[in-house]
Request: fold
Amino acid sequence: MTVTVRFAPSPTGFIHIGNIRPALFNWLFSLKTGGTFILRFDDTDLERSKAEYAKAIENDLAWLGVHPHRIDRQSERFALYDKAADVLREAGLLYPCYETADELERRRSRARALGRPPVYDRAALKLTDEEKARFEGEGRKPHWRFLLPNHDGDPFITRRTDVSWTDMCRGDQTIDLASLSDPVLIREDGTYLYTLPSIVDDIDMGITHVIRGEDHVANTGVQVAIFKALGAQPPVFAHHNLLTTRDGEGLSKRKGALSIGSLRDAGFEPMAIASLAVLTGSSQAVEPMATMEALQKKFDLSSISKSSAKFDPEDLNSLNAKLVHEMEFCQVQERLISMGVNVAEPFWLTVRGNCGKVSDARTYWQAVHGPILVETADEDREFLAAAARLLPEGEITSETWGVWTGLLKAETGRKGKALFMPLRKALTGLEHGPDMKDMLPLIGRQNIQARLP
Ligand code: GLU
Reply:
């Protein structure tokens, strides 16, 4: 079987670290299986869906390294949904209902008060043609419900009807269709809810595996019934856990700060974000993977845990730093140039271990080329003057620092921090940074001399 998966966002906002997880899971699964990955915009809500959000999602995915084989838009596929609705109507499985939202709410409250589950009682199935005509005459428009197959011919006598599937993340799952209301598939204004278009597309696009958040588990029983009503075999399902903050809060409040665009602007590496998003909430250690290929090897749907995926946005900093420490010069050269850091390989190899983000290289660029601002403490003035005198002749190499500080130690009696720190500060303007033995050749004799009294 060739695998076909889809990531199906509604383009009603920017994607963030939580909702890129299904994108990444689907992408990695397609890489693992040599399958096809479709980006499907669920944009049937024409008012809330925006082309600029769809574009931003495409760009964010590309930046992360997710490259769809195909892009579809539900807003261009209404004819297919209309056809499927007709098929269901003709089979007597999609029926018009005229209750208002208020009426439905009253009925639900009554059921709850009587201790009954608030399941829709299918009253609309009892409407005569005259009653329907009267409603229409009053200007009421019907919404349409799918008749769940939870009865033996008489829809008013339901019986337990288990829909079961083996979920690739959650194991065996069962939903009793008799516990559910017939789902509304089409609203009064004729617009589709998410359910039917999603199933029609999954069938039409030959989706073999539906990998999505566990907030959709409850929908799956209904969806399986509709797949079957449309004569199709349901796909394999995998419902992954949802990302929350450490204290269990959903991401809704932090969405802005954790949007992929703002993380990119803050200088994070795509693979740090992808590694965190994929490995958090799994039995795998959360480590930075340098490539999608490496992440794909670590990724396994069955290793996703059943409890929520708790994460601390701070973890991104350490993952990012670990990736940056290993990055080759060729991977960063262009970015460095675009930041005005026009350097050769030895500079990068010297500073990368001290960079949490690639952009931190700017700090060390400044430390090398200046200008640097330091106030020399009075007690260090003489020491630094001695340093200026004792700087070894000849080329400044990685040996120079050891020889130089050896001479200084002998002459001044200083050692440890009292020996190194005034030099580091005077020569780089910083209290921390890469090894001075490697910095010295980058700074060069001229700058060294200029920075000493
Ligand atoms: N548009 C739906 C969502 O974003 C897709 C759910 C699904 O994958 O079936 O929740």
